[in-house]
Amino acid sequence: MKGLARSFVWWPGIDADLEGEVKGCQACQEHCKAPAVAPLHPWEWPARPWSRLHLDFAGPFLGKMFMVVVDAHSKWLDVAVVTTPSSQQAIKVLRNLFATHGLPEMVVSDHGSEFTSAEFQTFVKRNRIRHVRSAPYHPSSNGQAERVVQTFKEAILKTTGDLDARLARFLFQYRLTPHTTTGLSPAEMLLGRRPRSYLDLLHPDISPKVTQRQELQKESHGQHAKYRKFQNGSLGHVCT
Fold first, then answer.
1. Residue 32 gets which letter from DSSP?
2. Which H helix or E strand runs over 121?
3. Which tens digit of pLDDT belongs to each residue from 170-223?
4. 20 to 30 Å CA-CA from 194: which of 52, 136, 138, 223?
5. CA 78: distance to chain centroid?
6. Among 179, 192, 195, 196, which Cα is nearest to 72's?
């Protein structure tokens, strides 16, 4: 457009005037090319666990809807089956999680109506939680939740059986697996311990050995020890 105009006419500021004309054209804006992808700017890593949560709904997937919640510090993941992606369901899931882990400082979500509704806004404000929404039409700005949604779907598709059991096994394994970013498992980062799993059976159980040693010590001590008996009315030896 600029080249065509300049081949016929010219005036001071012609380029700026033509750019302004295009910006004011609705059809031009609707069909223009998408802007180049901006450089990656990752979220800052929170200093404490359960201080910033990323939320998202996944589905329909396998005939169900799921709500995904991930802690940005520990990478702890929770996935709950919901009837529908609504504010009521989001509040129900979060209320149960808050009862276990406490209130976060911030939650991050997309611009879905279930997160922008007055009901959800009232819920987070009453709990003194800051709500940050990712840029519209750019789900990558809520990348924490987007990545775990893909991980969750891929893992579930590789298993068979009852959906609840498959989900429980996935969460159990995910929480015990060291994360590539932190080098520790989400369970260790959030709970401060590594829950016992069947893989712990690879480590020898020292309990029988400890019990055996205690029995030997008891027998050795009993060979030289004598029971003391007192008669009725006897005070025995009194230390003064």
1. S
2. helix 118-126
3. 999 899 988 888 888 999 999 999 888 877 777 777 777 777 777 777 777 666
4. 52
5. 6
6. 179
